[in-house]
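Design a sequence for this backbone.
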């Protein structure tokens, strides 16, 4: 057990509401000497923990070590919106562009991944409030509904069926969610909601029980072929797996591998039965608006709304700081949005405000790979869609390092190399400025200023970021 002065999910002032729901998370001692093992994993979020669990489960004789810089779930995995979604950020066409036919394969594999998470939770007795109620993307404007219709037409061309994604008119949508001013919605059954920190803790417990050695407060300070440095100590391993997502920019050589971008969330106090009778969400679908800079939300198992999005934050020169996580203008936007969606509700009380760090690859493409000659593997680049995707990434990593020729190791993510981000100030414009323009485009849409919005779309498109 770690001593009381160390940072934990319970005493971290910037922790999420999810962290607060688990007062009995196990803690793990820091690394206190040199180690030798078969597999060393850097990063104790979903990516690192799923990788450890899958590898150890497949080959129990292997010694597997997880090194976490702070506490498990300190990164995005303990702070996200809890959408376990059958999707990743790129579109089918983006995948097809790097691997013909790869788009539809990715799509179906991601759908299956939502169920794989549930299966693993069942196998290891992990209670993370998993509930598969699908995902509803509502259209806040006529333009947004038109975009949904175009998207669905594109889906059909790509082979995505009307069982996988379909539109709802406003009356049909009201059976799921009743909010002000919608023009219909896009619905997919391929989504579940979870409490992400409960999942982190559950995977960690399962991995530890199988014999994975976990070290918290043991940040890698450098690594090379078959070796990780952790301050004065070193871990020698046949395979090293880097799972550090947005924090990768702090590692030597990875400064421009992703842009570290923050997203923010709030959770309300539990809402009354009267509220839910009027608002809906009986089957707890995850919900979002279909916009450029969307909100994302869920009805939690204990009847709160956990909502995030609408704005992101990138700091100059990829600076990483958790200091502003609990106090950011995005929190006020989110509160305002709740009142806009449910103007008849006077019971909203914010229980917690927080934020978390995502890793944005320059081409939005996740990447999972393994270089056998150096024993170096990696998984990451999920941006805001990593809850389910990290599970898939971990299974790919398992198959790569265990040299299993499965369909997973032929997916378009495998050994993909995203281009590096530009140096400043271009990176600031791309990762910091463009999202602000995207938010402005949504506001123009809300106000019906279509001409200005069209001009803005062209400007945003110029940067090649959407
Ligand atoms: C606010 C927010 C909302 C989101 N909502 C959703 C959502 O609803 N659905 C969805 O699919 N995705 C969502 N995401 C994205 C999703 O959370 C991430 O893609 C996913 O959690 C990434 O997991 P990871 O393990 O790769 O990275 P992380 O969870 O960030 O884990 C990386 C870990 O590595 C550790 N680390 C860093 N450097 C070192 C080092 N040198 N040595 C050792 N350890 C190190 C960090 O402390 C951290 O614990 C959201 C993200 C945020 C921030």
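Sequence:
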């Amino acid at each position: 057990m770690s001593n009381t002065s160390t940072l934990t999910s319970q005493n971290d002032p910037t922790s999420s509401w999810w962290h607060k729901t688990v007062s009995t998370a196990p803690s793990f001692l820091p690394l206190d000497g040199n180690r030798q093992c078969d597999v060393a994993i850097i990063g104790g979020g979903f990516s690192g923990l799923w990788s450890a669990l899958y590898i150890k489960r497949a080959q129990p004789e292997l010694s597997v070590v997880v090194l976490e810089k702070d506490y498990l779930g300190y990164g995005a995995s303990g702070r996200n919106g809890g959408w376990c979604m059958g999707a990743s950020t790129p579109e089918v066409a983006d995948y097809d562009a790097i691997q013909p036919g790869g788009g539809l394969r990715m799509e179906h594999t991601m759908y299956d991944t939502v169920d794989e998470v549930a299966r693993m939770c069942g196998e290891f007795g992990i209670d993370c409030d998993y509930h598969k109620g699908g995902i509803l993307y509502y259209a806040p404007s006529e333009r947004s509904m038109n975009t949904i219709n175009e998207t669905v037409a594109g889906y059909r061309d790509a082979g995505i069926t009307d069982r996988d994604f379909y539109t709802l008119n406003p009356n049909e949508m009201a059976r799921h969610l009743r909010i002000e001013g919608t023009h219909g919605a896009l619905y997919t059954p391929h989504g579940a909601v979870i409490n992400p920190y409960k999942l982190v803790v559950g995977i960690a417990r399962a991995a530890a029980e199988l014999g994975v050695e976990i070290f918290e407060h043991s940040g890698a300070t450098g690594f090379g072929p078959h070796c990780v440095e952790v301050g004065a100590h070193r871990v020698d391993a046949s395979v090293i797996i880097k799972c550090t997502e947005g924090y990768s920019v702090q590692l030597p050589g990875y400064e421009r591998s992703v842009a570290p971008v923050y997203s923010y969330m709030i959770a309300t106090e539990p809402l009354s039965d009267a509220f839910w009778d009027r608002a809906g969400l009986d089957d707890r679908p995850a919900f979002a608006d279909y916009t450029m800079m969307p909100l994302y939300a869920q009805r939690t198992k204990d009847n709160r709304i956990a909502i995030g999005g609408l704005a992101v934050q990138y700091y100059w020169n990829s600076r990483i700081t958790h200091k502003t996580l609990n106090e950011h203008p995005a929190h006020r936007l989110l509160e305002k949005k709740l009142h806009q969606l449910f103007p008849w509700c006077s019971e909203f009380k914010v229980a917690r405000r927080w934020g978390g760090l995502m890793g944005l690859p320059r081409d939005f493409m996740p990447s999972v790979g393994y270089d056998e000659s150096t024993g170096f593997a990696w998984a990451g680049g999920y941006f805001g869609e990593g809850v389910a995707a990290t599970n898939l990434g971990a299974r790919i990593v398992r198959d790569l390092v265990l040299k299993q020729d499965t369909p997973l190791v032929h997916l378009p993510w495998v050994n993909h190399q995203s281009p590096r981000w530009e140096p400043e100030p271009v990176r600031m414009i791309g990762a910091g400025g463009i999202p602000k323009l995207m938010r402005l485009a949504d506001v123009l849409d809300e106000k019906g200023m279509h001409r200005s919005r069209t001009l803005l779309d062209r400007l945003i498109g110029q940067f090649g970021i959407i």
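The chain has a mean pLDDT of 94.
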